[in-house]
Amino acid sequence: MEDIKEKQDTINPQSVDTAALSPDERMIQEAFNDLLKDYLNSNHRRKVERITKAFHFAKQAHDGVKRRSGEPYIMHPIAVAKIVCSEMGLGSTSICSALLHDVVEDTEYTVEDIRNMFGDKIAQIVDGLTKISGGIFGEKASAQAENFRKLLLTMSDDIRVILIKIADRLHNMRTLGSMLPAKQFKIAGETLYLYAPLAHRLGLFSIKTELEDLSFKYEHPQEYEAITKKLEVTAPIRERLFQHFAEPVDAKLKAMGLKYEMKARVKSVYSIWNKMEAKKVPFEDIYDIYAVRIIFDPLPGVDEKNQCWDIYSAITDIYRIRPDRIRDWVSRPKANGYQALHVTVMGPDGQWVEIQIRSRRMDDIAEKGFAAHWKYKEHHVEEDTELDKWLQTITEILENPDPNALDFLDTIKLNLFSSEIFVFTPKGDIKTLPQGATALDFAYALHSDVGNKCIGAKVNHKLVPLSHKLASGDQVEVLTSRSQTPQPEWLNFVTTARARAKISAVIRRNRNETIKAGEAKVLEAYKNAGIESSSQNLDRLAMYFGFNKRDEFYYSVEKGEVILPDNIQKILKDKDNNVLFKYVKQALRMATKSKSEADDVSAPIAPKPVYDKKKPYVLREEAFQRNYIIADCCKPIPGDESLGFINDDGNVVVHKRSCPIAMRLKSSFGERILNTVWSSHQTATFEATLEMKGIDSMGVLHEIIDVISGEFNVYITRFLIEANDGMFEGRVKLRVHDVEDIQKLCVRLAKIKNLQSVSRIAD
Predict the structure, then answer these.
(1) What's the CATH code, domain 8-221?
(2) Which of 161, 218, 220, 467 has its CA 20 to 30 A from that of 388?
């Protein structure tokens, strides 16, 4: 690409005398100067004049408006443009669009005004950003799917729309401290649920990591602070280990004449916490907290891939390799464009060390994602990228989305955050699938017709069922039959969004056809009996057979589960059935009321309580009456980090902040989320479960029970224990007052000889 260097005196970042400006004006001008400096240091064409024009236009449009933090609003678009420029590597079109991204939504200017001043492309991007403004999720479920569809469709039009949207969310997360706690939970939950997976799928590794860490910081501040402090305390130890490891490798690579940098990369706080939670181990038992990264500049005339393997060879001459931990993403990049060679070796201090070997180009793509491809487009990037294939998959799903908004979001999410496997067709073609994909997923990856007619598969020449999980390197031959059609149970074992969408579409279509056929039979029966097929008469017949929805009734009729009587007239004139009809209709009207009100048909509808979301909601228990409901999915107890969800009855349901259901509620119903604090619960008790593992020995069970019931006077409601091959595992369900009770009990139990681990689990 020809590097056109225009005269930079069009606008000099230092040409404005900031000393003469007001404090706000000086802050704005200095921020814009920094943006221009970053842009001029990039390899993009020098189009400073249009960026300056966009800046002045946005500054004038947002004049006088302040953010919640108190700073001028224009500081936000400048910050988003800076992320787009320096952290994503995008050019002037994206920078201008970022500067203008809130103008149409927040001011009187229109997309036409933007088009007249800045051209079609910038207007199209700003229009795309305006359509998906206000967060991905609306307050109503029906709007959620529509907004999400808009987001994904704009990706197909121009990928820069979603890249700028992610940059916008990143800056909002960086400045989230000025928001109210309930708003923080909503935004953090939404970010972790959707934006971080999108950033990951687009290859924006550093941004994805920061989004996860910032979300974690606001959702679990205590855990975040604890892990951060432990990382600081253990940093000198890691530095010594790295120096011991690096010295002989440095000498070897320098002897090869390579130009490179070697550094230790520490795992993110969120990923450390995730591993602690998944493995149920403390911080001290996480051994892969850091990895070594080697980034090299390719030697002239030498292939990058070959150089990766040359460095691999040099390292394995020094250190012993762990064969099962080689990851070759150089020959076959990940679907998000990531390329690197990973190898794990035994370091000089007796610890396994992961090494990531990348060229400078590979590192750029890993950190900045697909945008970095453009930097190397002349020599390295093919038009038919993996991203194009992924966007094509999304387009197919959007053609027939699930009508349930939350299911639709989950369907899309299935493919966002998954590891990949590589599977071969009988002819040797490679298909990329998510980890855990089945033979049926593979069939749908080939073609929707192949999936719909699939009856089984041969994996490595052995016959397997549709539900068989595939592994990297498998060769798969799909077996089909013309008489086969998708079955509802297929949804239980497919993992890809494409397969799930195709199966659901066929099942819905078949079900609708069955319902129509059943309806025709019912209407024919009414006609033969000489009775009017009014809505009331149809409802009455459906309720007689136990259905409160006509579609379900029609479906059962066509399936032969309901046999229509010869004399429909008798059923409709039956007095008992008329009473039943009135009762059921009344019950349906009462469905939105509380159970206690439903018992009394004449009871007035009680007003739902109003909650002040600016203040924490205090979880109290007075005279054995609680002002909240404990969620069954995670069963929080006093002392747990928690949040409240206002249900349809107006009651507050308390979840742990780490609960997966709570994450879904935060991201989908943010306006119903409350920040909660526990009051002292001195008399009330709550259910908690401990998991214990240890060496099976005489008296250990007696000692455990003695500590729990004797020393701590804690009531045991259930105790399950199983011994096998000299080891035992047990679960004990207890009634405790709060988290502090659990912590003290775990500390004491851990002192029992032969009891190797004890921890609280969700049950």
Answers:
(1) 1.10.3210.10
(2) 467
